[in-house]
Amino acid sequence: MKVANEVLAFYTKKVLIFAISMFFAAGLIFFVISLTPGNIADIHGLSPTTAASLHLDKNIFSRFLLWTYNAFTLNFGPSLANGTQVTELIFDYAPTTIQLAIGSLVFSLLLSVPLAIVFALYPHNKWARLSSTLVYALSSLPVFVVAFIILALIFNLLHIYPLDPPTENAPFWHILFYQFLPMIVLGVGNGTLGEFVRLLQLEIENTNQALYIKSARARGAFLFPHFFRPVLLSFITILVSRFAILLGGVIVVERIFNRRGLGWLTWESTLNRDFFVLMGVAFLTVLVIRIFILAQEIIIYQLDPRRR
Amino acid sequence: MSYLKKIRGPGKKRILFGFSVVILLIFSAWIGPHLTSYKVDYMDSAHIMEPPSLPFFRSFLVTQKGLQNLGKNSGQGPVSSHTQSSHSPVRSTKSTQVKQSNEYSNELPEQLPNNPSTSSSINSENTLNEDDPYAFLESHSSPTAAPTKQTSTSASADSQTSILNSFLAWTKFFQVSHKHYFGTDKDGRDILVLLLAGAKTCLIPGLLVCFIALIIGVPLGIWSGYTGGKFAEVCNFFASTLLSFPQMILILIFICALEPNLYLIMGVLGLTISPRVFGVFKNKTELLKNTGFILAAHEAGLSKFRILFLHIFWYQCRTLLVIQFSLIMAESILVETTLSYLQFGTKPPDVSWGSIIEGSRMAFFSEYYWITFFPSLAITLSILGFYYLGDGLNARQRARENN
Amino acid sequence: MPGRGPVKTTEPLLNLQNLSVAYGAADQLQYVVRDVSIKVENSEIVGLIGESGSGKTTTAHALLGLIEGIPGITAGEGVFLGAPCLPQANLYIQQKGSALKKRRIAYQSAHKKLLKSHLGHTLTSIFQEPKSALNPFWNIGKHLLEAAKIGLSGKMDEDSRPDQIQAISLRTLASVGIAEGESVLKQYPHQLSGGLAQRIMIAMALLCRPRLLIADEPTTALDVTTQAKLLQIFTKLRKERGTSILIITHDIGIVREIADRVYVMLKGEIVEQGPTHQILTAPQHPYTQKLVSAFYRFADLGEPND
Asked: Quick one: average pLDDT of A114-129?
């Protein structure tokens, strides 16, 4: 019973923190938007009836409560630029971004695990050192510089122009590049790949120094099962912690490659000062990230016996 | 200098590289623009989209065949014959080619002056002030069509051949020949000057970011690491809430609400980086809290403030501060260039490397590679410089701790 | 009984000659172990005494192939169960940089190949911090399963079935004095006490019926009563299964209790060796004399028994 109580306490605490921090996040978003000088209705030239229907005439606290209440039911109001509901807009544009984000994460993780293993196993090898410098250097660049490097290489070496959508008879490479180039660029740039490789490598090296690995070696045991669990745990931690930064790079990637996704929507609505869309996208993004963080904490709690 | 020789052990190469990049950046930001012959806002309309005059970069152009094929597919870059001949034919072919390009036509000036008369009118309109002692250099070796005038130094052509003037002309090495070493962009601005001026836009906002992030993160981190308990929990809560915002989204919300003022944005960026700094210093203080000498200091009756400030912060966390400073600088340059690329950063006349790249986005795939290449190179060098500086110091610190 | 040497067969179980281990650059070599020769016969308990930093742990690690530094093992020949267990270490300490690293990597892989058939079967080891030496993410049952899979593979094939392995694990746990084996199998290392963890490590080391057990400071992290129990287990091992044990410790009391022969190490070299009785009553080297007199001064026991 005691163990069950502890588990219950843990989960309750986590869910409570989740709810309260979402409330604070909504508060931050709303507070920043409310710093707009002037009246939202006046900026967009809305008629008084429209403004009243959007509750723009009420005072700030009731507006905040109304917005937060609606936000938790995923109703963010209409887009001030073209009138469609923000939720509809987001669901229209989300698939591209989800595909991009997941694809880039998968690519980055698939590439980083072998790289981390090689860099950890062969620290003195000349080629390993050279490629690790290259990986860290390339990865710490902003996304658009990485995009330009890769595009320049493809352009100069292969004479291919992969930025257009492929037509009916497009060759195989065109389709391939068109689909995967944004994911590759997003997975490499802004420090994503470099952080993954560095943290995984650090985890492998730290585990290697531990006494239980030494004693496993002395027993003649296979080392891979011993490394699996700690590396997996740090894997999950890094994944979740880089996800927020990944979503920041999505905006630039969608602009470079001319995709219409949530990043493009965010940029457009910032230009048009479309507040509701921006608030909706921000709230949803924070919600998704906090869900991921919650999932990570639960998984680590279940998988790591030391926490219990 | 002696400190540089004392750097030993792991990370030495990285620290030296980073340090030299930082020195180069500071130099280019403040002294660089004075050493070049052009000023930042001087638009050399006769030299629009001119390729770099350094011999290595002149030959480093995209192959022409691929361009011709691409011109059919996408209507992107202009179809050109060749660009590697001497100055004047280049300029004339450039002006005609540029008119033919589809994507670029609405961004270029409609009239491209190509005769000496217009060029001299440009000279009279240029923005150099009259009391500039080197103004006579401009008026005499004008950047016009005749190639012979290019190589003549002003000192010999002018009647005022005083020793002072020739000495000044000799010291101003870069000003003698008036070539665009790195080429020009679509407005005619010299790329080299833009690079040097953009260094300031990297450094000063970066300093602001570092300042804010460290001011918020370090005291809170050290205090909550030392005190623990409710205060640390509350700080952790706010830090994790802030960390669940993507940086870009928060910055875009601020831009949407208020003016896209660069300093405001950098303040917000500092705010988003501060949770990480908070975490680093909190961990370090928690590690130090239970070490022998801190416990002894506590027992000896030193005041909390003295322990925290002197023993923990000044003696132990100083290196950590420098490391975080350089890493935050690297990140701020990254975000700042990204924002300028998204057209939210600096407004003209302030220059930023990201905005140069943004303005030339479509030109990259024609033979105007230099507009994107040199700013990208500058961005790469500066980010890597700060990053490797922090990384090298980190490696050195870890090696010292392990011993 | 300690003091009475076992019957000597023709070949010793382990014959280590002139082992040297060094770290550092070629012009600043620091020898951690210099010219150490150790012999262990069948069914013999040998003690290796020294203070911390005398190189005894490094000797054990060298035998097990765990040396990671540069250049590492610079010289030495070892024969274990009739076959060499240390590769030829040509003196390559004069080489520098990448050539040195290449030789070292080649040496390490040759060493691993030589030891592959022994580690976990005939040559096992236990370490100083028992709770850290167990994988914190695995429960004890999984540890014993792994040890059984390695140790019993090729010996008794019908014993590879899971229930057989379970039975063997419980039997081994009982033999080291752990009563409720079933509940222990489900626990994790951080939930155990130090003595229990060390006994589990011994159980893992014994599952495969080794010929030589290297015990690196097995009792240092434990309290005195648990120490006594462990020493009982060691003597039982030697008597019932004929396992030889190489005990590395800084505690003369342990050596006095169970060791047949003792080697004394100081700063990487063996300064004295011989039967326990002789070392304790008539130490020759000044360092050994200091050690023995310090022990007896604190223990206030006078002469050892028999």
From this structure: 87
Q: Which phi-psi region, left, alpha or beta, contains residue C211 (left: φ > 0; alpha: ψ -120 to 50)?
A: alpha
What is the pLDDT confidence band of residue B85, given thresholds at 50, 70 and 90? very low
Mean pLDDT of A114-127: 87
Q: Could you tell me how many CB contacts below 8 A there are between chain A and chain C?
A: 70
pLDDT at position B251: 92
Find, in chain A, the residue whose alpha carbon is nearest to that of C131. A212
Mean pLDDT of the region A104-115: 92
* Residue contact C137–A304, C-beta within 8 A: yes
Prediction pTM value: 0.79
| Confidence label for B94 from pLDDT (cuts 50, 70 and 90) | very low
Residues 157-196 of chain A with CB under 8 A from chain B are 159, 161, 163-164, 190-191
- The DSSP code sequence of chain C is -TTSPPPP-SS-SEEEEEEEEEES-GGG-EEEEEEEEEEE-TT-EEEEE--TTSSHHHHHHHHHT---SSEEEEEEEEEETTEE-S------TT--HHHHHHHHHHHHHHHHHHHHTTBTTTEEEE-S-TTTTS-TTS-HHHHHHHHHHHHHTTT-GGGGSHHHHHHHHHHHHHHTT-S-HHHHHT--GGGS-HHHHHHHHHHHHHTT--SEEEEESTTTTS-HHHHHHHHHHHHHHHHHH--EEEEEES-HHHHHHH-SEEEEEETTEEEEEEEHHHHHHS--SHHHHHHHHHHHHHH---SPP-
Element (H, E) at B286: helix B262-289
Cβ contact B249–A281 (<8 Å): yes
